[in-house]
Design goal:
With 894 residues, the chain is of the alpha/beta class. It contains 34 helices and 24 strands. The strands form six sheets. It has a seven-stranded mixed β-sheet with strand order 3-2-1-4-5-6-24, with helices on both faces. A seven-stranded mixed β-sheet has the order 12-18-17-16-13-14-15, with helices on both faces. A three-stranded antiparallel β-sheet has the order 7-8-9, with helices on both faces.
């Protein structure tokens, strides 16, 4: 396994998915992670998927064969202590106290205040281990009315309340959640960023830190549409509703049938020439030579977007082309012309994909009970020399531990520690408590931002929040479609038609629309912008000079862009051996599909994620675009940069002072697809073991029943809003009994009781009768508002929540109590209520700076950082590099 975080000691008290996934990210990169499980094991040990079995396995070995636990627990050690009960044994408490005393980081997911009642408060941990980092991951954070009331969460509750679930799905049906439990994965993934940042602060200052991760806020701040939607709502007052079933378009976007399944076609308006070329190469869309226009002729008209006949013409050519291909061949044919077409795969299809096979993404790992387990390798790879290829096989992870496998050995070892449990002087050889006062971990770090769309910009936003100076390089001669708007200067009459991912204040693009667009504003805070065209000789030379003044370069362009600009890793490393380069290609730096183009939705479809998402009883035309890959990539990539900066500068592991510094930069190869595949790792394990072809479950779960999204009554406070929904998820039998009691109390006379019905007493029974249960739940929720369902469920200790629109989220009392929304904007767009941060802590205050403006830092970057003289500055001006506008090739503003 990677040794990037070797020497860090992590104590994992968390169960489920979010906390253990955070622990996995540390463990898979070299940290020593000890997992403390309850006597019956982490509930993840009972979590499917379990192939096509009609009932859940309950034999003695089933706790060791859970695909979810096998995936989440690689490279960890397991001990047993009962911390979940109100009165754990004195022996267990003393054992955990001793483990805390030797740990750098503690991860926990108990209800707020629970550890305090056990004598394991944050203050106690600080006394046991000065400088400790405690990361608490809970549904609603450590404070606020929902936290104080003990309200519970679940994957679907988090997405419904915090995420853009109200806008996910089609308008004729209920809102629908994401694949599997990826929302819970992302909460843990996000938590890795502040956890590692807090650890690095502790290493330099000796100061402890408490990181407060609210799953609700983590989703409310996701760049997968929610932050853009919230800003759109602030700009226009409009909530973002679900879309109609896949509409007909001249530039098609959606799922289309091929000969053996389905493929995702993603065609931006400026990609239509690629589509036309692909179809023409197959002899389609050429016209009949007898007066009928070709597709090329029709698209040559600047007003093609208003051509009423063009969508039919496109489909007349598109469908025959699609049916002539298989899933495997359709993408290859389209990618010849760089058209974003990718197959819709199930996880089982991905296991045999030639690209992932060539990159050794799946490796066999022997397990004493589960047999050979097909595991994913780590989500990113490091290249320490000038070789930027991926020809070395990735590290094979150590198998997941058996329940309590390391308990005896670790108990015996900690028993030898001093009776008070405090660390000995040998544990603190560098006197870390005497380091300089705490400051943000990236204070003094400069980052060159060459990113586009969401994933890369999201990463650099996190790095900016942690103190880095981030400088975007914007090419004024290339308008970055989907980064700063769908069009450079959208006509006023089409602005409303561009949709909620390209909105402007008061629907007014203004004189410089690229500085006012909501999608860019969702990740643009705190960044500087310089304008430079690196395709010219002067631009390239200037950019290479800038490389000598930065610590990190981040880019997520298509694979060949950097080489064309002369910014390949070999050149960059030679120019500045200390620089770290993060490259974020969708499919890695090599492999048969490495040069494929598309958006996150394309690669989610290809790598098995989308195949798990959507309505169980509908076809893929009901799938609307989601972009989970983007926030997943942004957080893990920021984590990778933090880790590598720690390795370079000596803040990576316990006792790593000057002697621990390498002083040398490295290349981070970050395959976005391989990273997001971690969020469905259990499905690959199950597919490999059982040959399972997994299908969408809608709002149901492989591990919880009942679970669903249910229509609610119209809220009298919003009589014009009839699209009201709530979600409910029973995590265990006790949840079901509590829900059944609620339903029985709300049922009319003569309706059979649910609480005593033995058919529903077990998870197997509830799954078998899910439809019947759903009818009863719907009959109850339709009499209540979504808020009433929420509070009645939660007061009965059943996870549930309303599906919140943007306006409802803004009015939520938990968000108000934690002052989550904050003012931001710029002098060009004005000041608005923006989504807040996705975590809180008691560490140094993070900056909250305005949204960057194109070219706002030109003089600072070129005159102060580079020290250009008047002649050099004038040369840049003469070539059109220095500007506040996007430009035509002749240098005039667009």
């Amino acid at each position: 396994m990677s040794q990037l975080l070797a020497g860090i000691r992590v104590l994992e008290l968390a169960t489920g998915i979010s906390g253990p996934y955070l622990g996995k990210l540390f463990a898979d990169h070299g940290a020593d992670v000890i997992k403390v499980e309850p006597p019956g094991g982490d509930p993840a040990r009972r979590h499917g998927p379990w192939g096509d079995a009609e009932s859940l396995p309950r034999d003695a070995d089933s706790l060791e064969r859970s695909p979810l636990f096998l995936h989440l627990s690689t490279n960890k050690r397991s001990v047993v202590a009962d911390l979940g009960s109100p009165s754990p044994s004195a022996n267990d408490l003393e054992f955990v106290r001793a483990l805390v005393a030797e740990s750098d980081i503690v991860i926990e997911s108990f209800a707020p205040g629970h550890l305090n009642t056990l004598g394991l408060s944050y203050d106690t941990m600080c006394r046991l281990r000065p400088g400790i980092v405690l990361t608490s991951i809970t549904p609603f954070g450590q404070t606020g009315p929902y936290a104080e009331a003990g309200y519970r969460g679940s994957d679907i509750v988090t997405y419904a309340m915090g995420g853009p679930m109200w806008g996910t799905g089609i308008d004729e049906r209920e809102p629908v959640k994401l694949s599997g439990d990826v929302t819970s994965y992302q909460v843990g993934n996000l938590a890795a960023v502040p956890t590692l940042a807090a650890f690095q602060i502790s290493q330099r200052s000796g100061r402890p830190a408490h990181v407060d991760v609210s799953a609700f806020e983590a989703q409310a701040g996701t760049i997968d549409r929610r932050t853009s939607y919230l800003i759109y709502q602030a700009y226009t007052g409009t909530d973002v509703a679900r879309e109609p079933r896949q509409p007909q378009r001249a530039s098609p976007v959606g799922f289309y049938p091929v000969s053996d399944g389905w493929a995702l076609v993603f065609t931006l308006p400026n990609w239509t020439p690629r589509m036309v070329q692909t179809l023409a190469a197959a002899g389609l869309g050429l016209g009949d030579g007898d007066g009928e226009d070709s597709l090329a002729d029709r698209f040559a008209n600047p007003g093609w977007v208003f051509d009423p006949d063009l969508p039919d013409m496109v489909e007349t050519a598109l469908y025959p082309w699609l049916f002539s291909h298989t899933k495997a061949s359709v993408a290859a044919a389209a990618q010849v012309h760089k058209w974003g077409v990718t197959p819709l795969n199930a996880p089982v299809d991905v296991l045999t994909d030639e690209h992932f096979a060539a990159r050794s993404v799946f490796v066999p790992v022997a397990h004493p009970v589960a047999g050979t387990v097909t595991q994913l390798t780590a989500p990113f790879r490091l290249h320490s020399d000038s070789n930027s290829s991926s020809d070395a096989r990735p590290d094979v992870p150590t198998r997941a531990p058996l329940l309590g496998e390391h308990d005896a050995a670790i108990r015996a070892r900690v028993a030898e520690r001093p009776a008070n449990g405090a660390p000995t002087s040998s544990d603190n050889p560098d006197g870390l408590a005497h380091y300089e006062p705490p400051r943000l971990p990236l204070d003094g770090i400069r980052i060159l931002d060459l990113t586009v769309v969401w994933a890369g910009p999201g990463c650099t936003m996190y790095l900016s929040d942690l103190g880095a100076e981030v400088i975007r390089v914007d090419n004024p001669f290339v308008f970055p479609t989907a980064t700063r708007g769908l069009m450079a200067r959208p006509p006023a009459e089409v602005v409303r038609e561009l949709g909620p991912l390209s909105g402007y204040p008061d629907n007014d693009p203004g004189p410089r629309p690229w500085n006012r667009q909501n999608m860019f504003s969702s990740h643009g805070r705190g960044k500087l912008s310089c304008t430079l065209d690196p395709r010219t000789e002067l631009g390239r030379e200037t950019l290479l000079r800038l490389v000598d003044h930065v610590d990190v370069i981040v880019e997520n362009n298509s694979l060949g862009v950097l080489a064309k600009l002369g910014l390949d890793w070999e050149t960059v490393h030679a120019a500045n051996p200390r620089v770290i380069m993060l490259r974020m290609p969708p499919m890695g730096l090599d492999g048969p599909s490495a040069d494929w183009l598309g958006f996150g939705a394309n690669f989610e479809s290809m790598c098995g994620l989308t195949g798990l998402r959507g309505y169980a009883d509908d076809d893929p035309t009901s799938l609307t675009s989601v972009f989970h890959m983007d926030p997943a990539s942004a957080a893990t990539a920021a984590f990778a940069v933090l880790g590598l900066l720690g390795k370079r500068d000596g803040a990576g592991a316990m006792g790593a002072g000057d002697s621990g510094r390498t002083g040398v930069g490295e290349l981070i190869e970050f395959s976005q697809s391989e990273n997001v595949m971690q969020h469905i790792g259990e499905y690959f394990i199950d597919a490999a073991a059982n040959g399972t072809r997994h299908h969408p479950l809608g709002n149901r779960s492989v591990a919880r029943a009942p679970q669903g999204c249910y229509r609610c009554a119209v809220d009298p406070a919003r009589p014009d809003q009839d699209d009201e929904w709530a979600v409910i998820a029973c995590e265990n039998d006790a949840d079901w009994q509590a829900l059944a009691a609620l339903l029985d109390r709300g049922a009319g006379e003569g309706v059979p009781g649910l609480e005593a019905d033995e058919r529903f007493a077990t998870l197997d029974g509830r799954m078998a009768h899910h439809d019947e249960i759903d009818v009863r739940i719907s009959a109850w929720t339709e009499q209540l508002t979504s808020a009433e369902v929420f509070h009645q469920c939660q007061q009965a200790e059943v996870p549930g929540g309303p599906v919140l629109r943007e306006s409802q989220l803004r009015a939520d009392p938990q968000m108000a109590d934690r002052c989550w929304f904050r003012q931001n904007g710029s002098v060009e767009q004005g000041w608005h209520s923006f989504p807040g941060r996705q975590w809180g802590w008691d560490g140094p205050e993070m900056p909250w700076r305005p949204i960057g403006i194109l070219g706002d830092a030109n003089e600072y970057v070129f005159r102060q950082i580079l020290g250009l003289d008047d002649a050099e500055w004038q040369a840049l001006c003469d070539e059109g590099h220095i500007t506040r506008d996007y430009l035509h090739p002749d240098g005039t503003p667009l």
